[in-house]
Amino acid sequence: MKIHGGLAFKSLPFGAIETIPPPTRVAIKVASKSTIAVKTGDTVLKGQPLTSVDTSAVMSHASVSGTITSINNCTISIQSDGQDTPYPSSPQTDIRANEILTLCHQNGLVGLGGAAYPVAKKLSSASQHNTVNTLLINAAECDPAIYCDEALIQERPEAIVKGIKLALTASGASNCIVGIEENKILAIAELKKHLPDNIKLVVVPAIYPSGAENTLFTLCTGKTGGLRYNQSLCFNIATCYSIYKAVELAEPLLSRIVTVVTSDNIRNVELRIGTPVTDVLKDLNTVGNQTITCGGQMMGRRVSAEHSIDKQTNSLLFNTAENKTAVACIRCGACADVCPEHLLPQQLFWHTDPHNSSALSNLKLDACIECACCDVVCPSNIQLTQHFIGAKNTIELQRVEQKKAELAKERYEKRLARLESQSLRERKKLDRKSDKLINSKDKEQLKKEMIAKALQKSMRKKKSTSGNSADDSPPQ
User: Fold this and answer.
1) pLDDT of 6
2) To bridge 243 with a disulfide, which of 28, 163, 294, 315 should be the other Cys (CB 3.0-4.6 Å)?
3) Nearest to 132 by CA among 199, 229, 20
């Protein structure tokens, strides 16, 4: 594979999808807005929901059977009993489009291409607006060092195609395109065998980042403007496989295929959600310090051995990262030459420190897809992408804080309006009483009546208060 701009990238062969022994413990991350449905000490079964189905947050499930040992910081730890006792489920037939959406939510499906966006939320948005014309299936890996989707296509093509059909039904799209890179020869052959005539297979050049959904859409259709502008929806090929399992087999998302790369080997391993990286290291018979990168060589991030496999983990790279010392920018412009979004990374970098939100917005920081092409070609070894991610996070925090401030201001203004309205009503009430007294013919009699009413009201209040006190007093 090559990256945008023509730089060659190493590509290695890989074997069949492997498995490792089930983990003795798992640490499963749950969405921050989830309502946790279990407690420490509970016994759970494999596939049992750990969070409530009533919220819109992505559901999480136990990937092993065993005992809940702790619940901390949105992470549920389970000690496996070694039995893998399954949670009862009932596969269904003749599923309607709205039922597919429900099953995707109940089984905790997210996009498996790396972004982990909730499948049910994406389908719900499409069905509500009824605006999806084209469903794009992304079979192009998002990183040159990731091969999990390619291996999945080669080994389980029939199930994947069933999942694509279910996604097509749920989205309501009239067209469906599967985009795949030209170097995936065996995977292309398998898809050609099983794809029906109404689903078009498009082979695109193996140039990174062809796997970026908007880039892939342009390569497949020739249309610019991205998915949203063209009323299109995109699902990763592994996501379609998980849709098939959720709908036809009633299986929640309990495992995923992960590419494991070492300095001399590439494997694709099916790992349970929550598996500690230490288990993978044991399987590799590796000891000592390791540099661990999660998410690919281009877009990955460093993690520790305490990291656990989550739904977003598509690769683990061991001892493949290079430590380079960054020096000052020499303004060569190479980063701009390779940017697939035609941005100006050099200028974006200048405005990240000190942070200049206005300039970053004008330079379209939000259009950066974090592909790290600029990092690869930078002769100064500046980790530009990390600066851009940090700037995006800062801007997002500023937006959240601004929204909080606006809501607080809105509540304050509403309170002032309520107090003003109450004060106005009281003034009007006093004015009416004053007018009534002024205009009365027998002012003395009216005064006596008003005083009598006030006294009666005061007596009722005292009586009510003394009655409550008597009820609350202890028996003699």
Assistant:
1) 45
2) 163
3) 229
